[in-house]
Amino acid sequence: MKNLRDNARYWIIGIALAVAGVSANRVFAPHLDTRPRAVVALAGELVALAGLGVIIFGINRRLRLAGQAANPDETSPPENRTISRNPGHP
Amino acid sequence: MPTFNLLDLFQGITTLISAEPLILFGRLGLIVLGGVLVYFGKKGVLEPLLMIPMGLGMIAVNAGVLFLDPTTATHIVAGSAPAGDPNVAAELARQAATGHAPGTLFMSPLVEKTEGLMYLMQVDFLQPVYTFAFSNGLIACFVFMGIGVLLDVGFVLARPFLSMFLALAAELGTILTFPLAVAMGLNYGEAASIAMVGGADGPMVLFTSLTLAKHLFVPITVVAYLYLGLTYGGYPYLIRLLVPAKLRGLKMPPKPVIKVTSDEKLAFAVVGCAVLCLLFPSAAPLFLSLFVGVAVREAGLKYFMAVIDGPILYGATLFLGLLLGVLCEASTILDPKVLILLVLGIVALLLSAVGGILGGYAAYFFSGRKINPVIGIAGVSCVPSTAKVAQKEVSLVTPDAIILPEALGANICGVITSAILTGIYVTLIPLLR
Fold this sequence. Notes:
The complex is a heterodimer of chains A (about 90) and B (about 425). Chain A contains three helices and no strands.
């Protein structure tokens, strides 16, 4: 939970953007005429997805900072990188 | 004394001989194709988990046609959507009443009316599975839940922009095939369903075609799964064709070991699921299934994980293969549009692969020639086949080059972009009609 708290700014901005986008898409757009409805709905979708992007950016930023703090001068060799189990399925 | 016809003992052969030439050759061809699928499944060229039950189902359903008793045949004819031509409808009703209607005891996919369905569920052994789990998309959702449990969204969160860019590039086929299909005479729903083959995600194709082109979902889904099986065998050649060996063997610069915590992944799954369901309610069952798998994994619910990635995923895969095979009965699958679907399906998958590799090249140039372009093909969301194919092809040239983490990131992001495109198609197409 500490990581979430430290990164709260990005989570709050991301969720706020996503809520704004969804509201535009699902609440405001249906009340408009055909053309503005399509524009607002599409813009809402993009804003909502951008909100998710902000959260991802925040997590990525934390990872970069944590990586730099852990290894200021060197990076680990590729064989140490984590690889998930990889069971096959269709 | 009643007359006895020896061929009544072997009705599979009698129905074969008495069928029209198109159906006769269709059934024989599908029996051979079923055998080929089993063979290539066993050899590992095609996905064995799907192809072996599918191939065997295909053989059995085309060999096991019999003359249905009048009650069952009447329920099938009366319960199905009426034939367009009244003469054809009258002929079908006459055949059913006289006990000369051919059919099988597997299932009757075209029956829609409740009374007919209730009767057939007591006769056809796969009808309950088909009605309660396949035609409503439950099996697709089960498979997606299993995929969710196997996915580690940490790979996406660790390399978000590269993953997203490659996943978007690898949707080229899903986007471009739609206008191509419309130009070839398919309606919007059919075009969107076959375009989804470019996403290389079986459950998405099944879900889209069940929603938008129910009358064609059998051939579209069968074409999709056949081609998805080919990604494992065909994509390596495409990679070798489009990426020279020198670039294929490119080692990517090592990155520090960084960990996305399970709290972050769980919180992202919750927010992502809520936002995507709010935006695309038509595809909400798929989003819920995917993210419930992710949430179970990240919450560490081991008993649920064991159930989902064991019995649920593999049980659903077994019945999916079996039902797809059984759906390949000649009279069901031989639609004049099948040839168009076969062409468009391969075009969609090819375009997506090419788009992915072009995305890989763009990443290679924009990163200052550090990113191996082969990872682009992993944006095609056939998890984890395309990521494994990419790693395998790189390892053939440079055995110690590891691209799997980046490839899996693009691969997992591909699943999410495919689900988003499914949501867009399923939401927009009914508005365009």
